[in-house]
Amino acid sequence: MPTTTTRLRVRYAETDQMGVAYYANYLVWFEVARTDFLRHFGWTYREMEAGGVFLPVIEAHCEYRRPARYDDELVVETSGRLVSKVRLTFEYVVTMAGQTDVVASGYTAHAATDPAGKPCRLPARVHEVFA
Amino acid sequence: MPTTTTRLRVRYAETDQMGVAYYANYLVWFEVARTDFLRHFGWTYREMEAGGVFLPVIEAHCEYRRPARYDDELVVETSGRLVSKVRLTFEYVVTMAGQTDVVASGYTAHAATDPAGKPCRLPARVHEVFA
Amino acid sequence: MPTTTTRLRVRYAETDQMGVAYYANYLVWFEVARTDFLRHFGWTYREMEAGGVFLPVIEAHCEYRRPARYDDELVVETSGRLVSKVRLTFEYVVTMAGQTDVVASGYTAHAATDPAGKPCRLPARVHEVFA
Amino acid sequence: MPTTTTRLRVRYAETDQMGVAYYANYLVWFEVARTDFLRHFGWTYREMEAGGVFLPVIEAHCEYRRPARYDDELVVETSGRLVSKVRLTFEYVVTMAGQTDVVASGYTAHAATDPAGKPCRLPARVHEVFA
Description:
Chain A contains 3 helices and 5 strands. The first copy, chain A, is α+β, with helices and mostly antiparallel strands. Chains in contact: A-B, A-C, A-D, B-C, B-D, C-D.
């Protein structure tokens, strides 16, 4: 499975009064990570949308193992998998930079749609990445 | 299962360039809904934290069926379930106000901890709600 | 000056590790408050955008006096003022529900544009509100 | 005036249905930029809070000139200025990477407080940066 790595730092805005990163932000980091994944394979999600193909999320899941705190540097390992001609799944594993313990892990499932929201086939370039 | 209802309106801030509510915001709405759930049963998550018991999320899941748009009024139906003496699960169903079609549904699982992050028993008041 | 009132509760997601509402969220609350302002006068910002007029923010300002905390109920008093045929300003005063001490106050300035981002005149209905 | 530079990319989560970065996110980017500013001068805001000094925002201002879009790479130039023994101001200029046109500019004012929220003197290390 093609895999890429994204690094990011926990922002103050992303913490909550428990002193840790608020749980919804992991889904934002997953989005940053899959943008990097696509960019790594030679194009961008921005170009894909410009080309009329959208990738809305149809399912998201996250398991939280250890808290992440303000200013922590995190590593998100992202791998992608073609589920069908119209569906794509990304898996994410978040660790603290320089450590192996898992902070969180999860996945998102996506269905390709046209600008009107109708299902459509993923572009050939996406198929090539997973070939 | 005890169940409560929360109403909220999609904020402009919560939309993205696809013209729909960004997927991570559903987890924020789930949080608003479970705060209401606890309040409905006579106390608040705020009091619970003041009493030294925290409810960090250990797992979150959401399935997205239909897009929600800016200014849409949404209804979140929330039900809670005691999984063990230290674990609690909430389930959420999001619909458009006045409609029955599901916009999204999901759950969050929580483990009670003390201020140091160590697992602890849920307060007796929580047990009573689910008795 | 036409004035409206909006009530909202501080979400857990909106707190930070200082235990108070994170400062950028006040701009989100200002947006919720001006959406209510427009709705109060018989139509909605949603309709305005559907009609091809956008109101991007060209300036935002906020002064923070007292912290707001999780689950606090806040009141935002919003007043609007027409600055020219294309410009509009909103002023906001945030207080804790049932109290008069100011939590924060600020303003946003807006310029009407068409869907392509070119300046355009505010709709007649907007002018009527401020007549 | 000491000045530092921060680079960041607009996240999908940060866009709104107008297709541009939502205005409140600029305050988040300002926070990321001042965290970098402090780090650049040999310590971190995280250490400062651990040492019992907090820097809550007492005023924030932003002027928006040109829209920023998803995946745009932005540069934030940040300069800091000591206003008194307890007050600090940061100024920010946001441009598109590789361009000189200003996307947005603004400032934040901060007052040093102890963990109880009482005003306190800025640490000697902060004074040295601005000496």
